[in-house]
Structure formats: C-alpha cells, structure tokens
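[Discussion] Sanity-checking designs against the backbone

I'm trying to build intuition for which residues belong where. Below is a structure token string of 374 positions. I'd appreciate it if someone posts a full sequence so I can compare it with mine line by line.
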C-alpha cells in the first residue's frame, strides 16, 4: 500500500487544511469507512456507477456501515452520457429528497464519469459537500480522481461546466481493476503514458520495458504504474492546483485533440483514453512539424502506444478537419479563440505553445500517416 499526499499550498492555513491522501494498493476499499468516520460524520451518500453497484460500491457501503455511518446508494448509468446537466439535476433532486445536508459526505465510486459528475454535484449542492473518491477504473485511479476537477459535458464541448472541488481523500484499490473490461483497462494506459511523456522520461523507459506485462494486466506492473502515475499527478496538482502557472496544463497533453475527437464522435463512442492516445500521437506529429522534436520521438511514442494496444490514428468518421477545429476553438484550453497546445520538446518534457500555424494543425488532423523521416 502506498500513501501519496496532495499538498495544497499557496493561500495560507485554509489551503493546508485541504491537503489529502491518495491511498493506492490492494484492498484499500476497506479503508474508506475509517477515513470518513475520522472526518467526523455519521452520514454519507454513495454515488456509484450502476455496473459496480453490487460489488465495489457495496463493499464501500459495508466499510462505512461497520463504522456506524448510514450510507444509502444512488446509482448512475455507465458511460460518458451520464456527465450531463440532466444527470446532475437528477442527483441534486435525489439529494434534496434524502434531506442531504452539509454534514453529509459524498462518496463517489466508479470511473471518471461518476467522479466528475458526483464531484460536480457535491461541489454545488447546498453550496458544497465533502467528497471522497473511490476510483475503480485505471483512468480514474491515475488521473481524474486526483486533483479536484469536476465537470459535465455540453453538446458544444467536453467538461465545459465544472468546478475545482478537492476531495477529502482518494482510495485507489488495485483489486477493483480486475472487473474492468479489457478495452477500458487498455484505454487507461494512455494517461499512464502521458506522465512519461510530460515529466518522467525514466518512467517512459520503464513503460517501454514493461509494456507486455502491463497490457497483460500483471498485478505487480499495474500496481507500480498506478502508484507512479498517481504520485506524478499529486505532485503536479500540489504545485499548480488551479492551473495558473502552466504546470498543471501539461496534464492536458493530447487532450485538446482528444476532446475534439470525443465531442465529434459522440460522447462514449471513443473511450477517453483512446482519444487521448490519438491526441498524443497528433500532438507529437505537430511538435515534429514545428521542429520541436525529431521524428524518432514520435515513433517511440507510437511504438509504446501500439505495444499497449492503443490507437494512434483517428477513425475515418472523425477526420472532418473544419469540424474538429471548430470544437478545438471552444476548448477551455484555447485563449481568445486561439488554439493552445501542449507539445513535447523531448520525452519527459512538454511546453505550452500558443503560436502554432493553423495549416500545420490541419495537416496533422487530416492525416493518419507516420511522421516524415529526416
Ligand atoms: N486531467 C487533467 C487535470 O486534472 O488537470
């Protein structure tokens, strides 16, 4: 078991109070009850993906119940379409019907969809309820459950409505990944590769050496990947909680492209991690065309993504360049309608780049080919 601290510094004593732990390891679901009880409440609401309501969510309820915490369950249909205003409104009304008040803690159990939705509802209901995350997918364990971003999608773009709302704690139980469908698991590996590309070249090399065991879901390799990724995420969030210094923006590597693909494909058609893998492949090609990296960096990243079973090219159905550019211009990461990209300068380092010629962006969106050889 590893305990990783998210240090929230920067605005005095109140921020220090908001620091929290990410607990990673096997069987850590059992730790949820004691942690929530130590938070001083006797009442919680478990918001869970319906697919794991009888398994992982029930174990969370048992852990809470053993400490005398009443914790009824609310379920959310699986899939990205649940990150909607309608789903948020339904939960707000269910909270109201259950007389949820500010002493009630919300415990989100599931993947990124449930975490983002439940976090958003917790941050807005009664002007804010304490929330805990129990991520049960790889994407959520290595990325979305850590750092306090919440959000719902609009037809015009992903995560366009949301808040920063830090959890009281995160419990990433590696055992819960056993029930994850293969495609979902592989999709989560894209966010793991991201950490190697943006800050940790040694981790990137480790991933290259362990791609087989990782894709084969070897528990030791998966545990190491989750811990190392969660530690990087926690460190980045600790340094730049509100994405103001540019450091947290590095986590968006590949995401400007990815969000456009997800929006255009229809939410839930491409899994988030699949879109991120394609987005990172596009971003690396863009960096290469801009002369920031040699083609072999693109090839190395492609090779790792392929070894893990991830795609690097967008499906034919989402290659409408004008439509993709229109979605990208609405992305939160664009500034005044100008596209802003996170681009690598080598493996293990990325920069925010504002002045990318549109014609180069069009080129990488229009094609799925390998980068030009030097
Ligand atoms: N997933 C990107 C972030 O948390 O900042």
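Best answer:
Here's mine. Compare freely.
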């Amino acid at each position: 078991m590893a305990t990783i601290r998210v240090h929230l510094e920067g605005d005095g004593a109140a921020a220090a109070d908001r620091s929290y732990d990410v607990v990673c390891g096997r069987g850590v679901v059992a730790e949820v009850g004691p942690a929530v009880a130590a938070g001083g409440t006797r009442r919680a609401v478990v918001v869970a993906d319906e697919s794991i309501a009888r398994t992982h969510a029930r174990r969370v309820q048992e852990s809470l119940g053993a400490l005398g915490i009443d914790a009824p369950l609310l379920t959310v249909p699986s899939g990205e379409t649940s990150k909607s205003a309608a789903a948020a409104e339904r939960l707000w009304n269910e909270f109201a019907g259950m007389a949820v008040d500010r002493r009630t803690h919300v415990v989100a159990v599931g993947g990124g969809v449930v975490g983002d939705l439940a976090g958003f509802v917790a941050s807005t209901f009664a002007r804010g309820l304490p929330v805990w995350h129990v991520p049960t997918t790889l994407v959520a364990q290595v990325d979305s459950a850590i750092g306090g971003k919440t959000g719902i999608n609009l037809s015009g773009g992903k995560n366009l409505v949301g808040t920063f709302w830090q959890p009281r704690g995160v419990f990433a139980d590696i055992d819960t990944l056993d029930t994850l469908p293969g495609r979902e698991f592989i999709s989560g590996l894209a966010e793991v590769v991201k950490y190697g590309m943006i800050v940790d070249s040694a981790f990137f090399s480790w991933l290259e050496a362990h791609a087989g065991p990782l894709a084969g879901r070897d528990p030791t390799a998966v545990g190491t990947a989750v811990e190392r990724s969660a530690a990087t995420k926690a460190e980045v969030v600790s340094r730049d909680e509100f994405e103001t210094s540019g450091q947290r923006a590095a986590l968006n590597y590949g995401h400007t492209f990815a969000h456009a693909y997800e929006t255009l494909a229809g939410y839930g058609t491409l899994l988030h991690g699949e879109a991120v893998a394609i987005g990172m492949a596009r971003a690396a090609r863009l960096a290469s065309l801009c002369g920031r990296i040699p083609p072999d960096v693109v090839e190395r990243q492609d090779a790792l993504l392929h070894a893990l079973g991830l795609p690097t090219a967008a499906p034919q159905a989402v290659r409408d360049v004008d439509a993709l550019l229109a979605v990208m211009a609405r992305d939160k990461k664009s500034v005044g309608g100008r596209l802003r990209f996170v681009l690598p300068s080598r493996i293990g380092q990325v920069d925010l780049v504002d002045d990318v010629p549109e014609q180069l962006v069009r080129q990488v969106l229009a094609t799925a080919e390998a980068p030009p050889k030097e």
